[in-house]
Amino acid sequence: MQNTLMDSDTPMTSPDLPRMERQRLHDAVVEHLQRLIIEGVLTPGMKLNEREVCERLGISRTPLREAMKVLASEGLIDIVPNRGAFVSKMNDTEIWEAFEMMSGLEALSGELAAERISPAEIADIKVLHQAMLVCRAQNDLPGYYSRNQTIHNKINEAARNSMLRQIYLSVNRRLLALRFKSNFKEEKWDRAIHEHDEMIQALEARDGKRLAGILRQHLLDKRDSVMADLRDASARAANGKAA
């Protein structure tokens, strides 16, 4: 049976979607749905039931459909004629290649940023890093992840390359949910924090080659973590069917 948000017989308790305010409605709906996809409330392959989503968010279908067009242009959802909108789902090859591409984009961002970043920007990143550590201590994964991604984003911005920026944003949107999930296990979470410590040290030293290497490996490690989790999930599903 097709997984949807939400089928008519779905209990009102799942998932918990707060009603939206009317101010800045279009941007707010886009950001809200992006966050739900990133945090796994809306899972890959899930169908978006327009009526149910509108009721849950307290909006009309017009802003929802406008938001879905934006998400479709970003590769986060697929709109299928006569079938509706579905959260995009990448296959294993697409995931592997996207992380491979992202590792190169992050590495180039770091190499250029080490040359071009300002002291004020480094200071901002260090403040974000400390806030990220507080979130880790509180087991606040959404808060941690938001600050984590802002750090990566600021490094990319500090590269001062508009073409790199456009490609970076395009590829990264497809990977945000997978990057979020890669921190579910505490040892992986803590290793990522250690790598962020090293990133800041390389930035402060203006060591572009070192920062590029750290960022490249950081993304490849996430790729390997995601692929391992997918293999484990497939194995569990196969064992469940066999049973």
Strand content: under 5%
Judged by helices, strands and strand pairing, the structural class is mainly alpha
Q: Please identify the top-level CATH class of the largest domain.
A: Mainly Alpha
Mean pLDDT: 88
Largest sheet entry: 4 strands, mixed
The geometry reads as globular
The CATH homologous superfamily of the largest domain: GntR ligand-binding domain-like
- SSE sequence, one letter per element: EHEHHEEHHHHHH
Number of domains: 2
Radius of gyration: 19 Å
Offer a few descriptive terms.
globular; 243 residues; 4 strands; GntR_C; 9 helices; 2 domains; 4-stranded mixed β-sheet; WH-like_DNA-bd_sf; transcription regulation; mainly alpha; Arc Repressor Mutant, subunit A; Four Helix Bundle (Hemerythrin (Met), subunit A)
Question: What is this structure's SSE topology?
Answer:
Layout lengths: L3 E2 L19 H14 L8 E2 L1 H8 L3 H13 L3 E4 L3 E4 L4 H25 L2 H19 L3 H18 L3 H20 L4 H19 L3 H35 L1
Parallel strand pairs: 1-2
Antiparallel strand pairs: 2-4, 3-4
What does this structure look like?
The protein has helices at 25-38, 50-57, 61-73, 92-116, 119-137, 141-158, 162-181, 186-204, 208-242; strands spanning 4-5, 47-48, 77-80, 84-87. Helix 5 packs antiparallel against helix 8. With 243 residues, the chain is mainly alpha-helical. The protein is globular. A four-stranded mixed sheet has the order 1-2-4-3. It is built from nine helices and four strands. The protein folds into two domains: 4-87, Winged helix-like DNA-binding domain superfamily/Winged helix DNA-binding domain (Arc Repressor Mutant, subunit A, Orthogonal Bundle); 92-242, GntR ligand-binding domain-like (Four Helix Bundle (Hemerythrin (Met), subunit A)), CATH 1.20.120.530. The two termini are 20 Å apart. A hairpin with a 3-residue loop joins strand 3 (77-80) and strand 4. Keywords: DNA-binding, Transcription, Transcription regulation. Residues 23-90 form the HTH gntR-type domain. InterPro entries: GntR_C, TF_FadR/GntR_C, Tscrpt_reg_HTH_GntR, WH-like_DNA-bd_sf, WH_DNA-bd_sf. This is GntR family transcriptional regulator.
